[in-house]
Design a protein that fits this description.
The protein has 505 residues and is mostly helical. The chain has 2 domains: 184 residues, Up-down Bundle (Growth Hormone, Chain: A), CATH 1.20.1250; 187 residues, Up-down Bundle (Growth Hormone, Chain: A). Helix content is 73%, strand content 0%.
Length: 505
């Protein structure tokens, strides 16, 4: 009976700033700041183009590619660091260190300086992965979907905040020719300050609870031969996405053909190294054998990879092209088209937490994810039917419906991620997150190749249909709706350094 009361929906509890809710709010705000910094160039691109002598539209395109190029490998690396050192240290370090390329970009006067600082700053996009583990440590399985949805939805809003806030700061508040520089530096300063605040205000786990770390370092831990082969194969799409980015840089003339081939060679060497590390780290222990209770199937991770490929990957791609689509299809002004297209991103505040909520409350995380992916497929097929003959209000409704399923699907994916294998949650979250960026690269490449926009939407819809079929083979995680994680370990007295305050309960 008491458990039933606990399961009643009480959204007001998330307004609390005590215990796990304090950690949740401080962590989503850290994610919010990373996205503000990551997307701080896009709304100021026109101003930057006018201010820096010799910069061209082609250069802006190069910088946009640089902004996402290193996010894919960064999410993998951050996932490993996270599992080893804990989210408190890694998130604080990321915020503090990434303030430096923000400042460098703000002071840049040449294309070389802009490219280098933008490449480095792109790694801040990996911050999302860190909070997934932190939130999972503080919330029980039965509530982790809602909590992760709030973390992801509110944090993702940082990109929209950049679009609305930074032009105002640059033009109205700071003013002058260098207003954009102060606006960019402002995002770096907030990251720098908040990095220290975050470090002083949170702990990795509730008092008395042990932080689970991987048994081995150097590659994701897997527990069977089939999982090991799957882990090696799943490296290929991520490296291929980087290869596509190199190819695009070559197509627009930023990289010479020889430079592109050098990148291909480096990526091939990286794959060989990753395969070698995965084998040497895991093969000896797989030969020894794992007890049944300690095993997990990598198939779970691969399905979640594909699901995030379709959800977050399509969101990044569609947000990039949607303003121009509305402007050209209905002959709208850029301002009106931008406002309508922004509805796709604004749904994050509601839809992503709702996806987590549905995963927590509908009794099956697997069926919830499958349903939302099916809705995503239908949404994109409807988007493919949009044309100038459609009334704009109806087109907007279709866009928002599609956006709901996209972002609710993201919430449902990360309601499952923390439950697959606790001690490697950071690495799993990193790989799944990286596949979201892989999806964006693939979908935007398709968009650049197809003759009509409707084919782009149909392609995403087709991928979603395949993903929905694959999700039928997802196993329901054990203890999906339990009051505590099955592998929680506790100590007699609250562990921790005096420098780590335990004032969260």
């Amino acid at each position: 009976m008491s458990n039933t009361k606990e399961r009643k929906f009480n959204p007001l509890r998330f307004l609390s700033f005590k215990g796990p809710y304090k950690v949740l709010h401080m962590t989503w705000f850290a994610f919010f700041l990373t996205f503000m910094a990551w997307f701080n160039m896009a709304p100021l691109a026109t101003t930057i183009l006018k201010d820096i002598e010799g910069l061209t539209q082609q250069d802006i395109k190069v910088l946009m590619i640089c902004n996402v190029a290193l996010t894919i490998p960064a999410r993998i690396v951050i996932g490993m660091l996270l599992d080893r050192f804990g989210p408190r240290k890694v998130y604080s370090a990321l915020l503090i260190i990434m303030s430096l390329p923000c400042f460098i970009f703000a002071m840049s006067t040449s294309m070389l300086q802009l490219v280098i600082s933008r490449l480095i700053l792109g790694t801040i996009g990996a911050g999302f992965v860190i909070g997934i583990r932190m939130v999972a440590e503080w919330f029980p399985p039965k509530d982790v979907g809602e909590a992760e949805g709030i973390y992801g939805g509110f944090g993702n809003f940082g990109s929209a905040a950049s679009a609305f806030l930074l032009p105002t700061l640059a033009l109205s508040f700071f003013g002058g020719e260098n207003g954009w520089r102060y606006a960019i530096a402002f995002t770096g300063a907030t990251c720098l300050i908040y990095g220290f605040i975050y470090y002083a205000s949170v702990t990795d786990t509730p008092p008395g609870k042990v932080y689970q770390r991987p048994k081995r370092q150097g590659a994701m831990e897997v527990t069977s031969w089939s999982s090991l082969y799957g882990l090696i194969l799943m490296q290929l799409p991520m490296l291929a996405a980087l290869g596509i980015l190199a190819w695009k840089l070559g197509k627009i003339g930023f990289l010479h053909s020889n430079g592109v081939h050098v990148v291909y060679g480096i990526l091939t060497a990286v794959f060989c190294f990753q395969a070698y590390k995965a084998w040497t780290v895991n093969a000896p222990h797989i030969r020894e054998g794992y007890p049944e209770h300690d095993r997990y199937s990598f198939r779970q991770v691969a399905i979640l990879d594909f699901a995030y490929f379709c959800t977050f990957g399509s969101e990044l791609a569609v947000v990039s092209m949607l303003p121009r689509f509305f402007e050209n299809t209905w002959s709208l002004t850029p301002q009106i088209a931008g406002m309508i297209a922004a509805s796709f991103a604004f749904m994050n505040l509601f839809a992503r937490p709702m996806g987590g909520f549905m995963s927590d409350r509908l009794g099956s995380r697997k069926r919830t994810l499958t349903f939302l992916i099916c809705g995503l497929a239908v949404g994109y097929f409807l988007m493919g039917l949009l044309g100038s003959s459609w009334p704009i209000p109806l087109a907007l409704c279709v866009t928002m419906l599609c956006s709901f399923f996209v972002q609710a699907g993201e919430g449902a994916v990360y309601a499952v991620v923390p439950l697959v294998k606790r001690r490697v949650t950071g690495q799993i979250a990193g790989m799944v997150g990286a596949y979201g960026n892989v999806g964006a690269v693939v979908f935007l490449t398709v968009f650049s190749l197809v003759p009509e926009t409707k084919h782009f939407f149909y392609f995403i819809g087709g991928c979603a249909v395949l993903c929905a079929i694959a999700s039928l083979f997802l196993k329901e995680p054990k203890g999906s709706f339990a009051d505590a994680h099955a592998d929680d370990e506790h100590v007699a007295e609250p562990a921790g350094n005096p420098a780590q305050p335990t004032v969260l309960s």
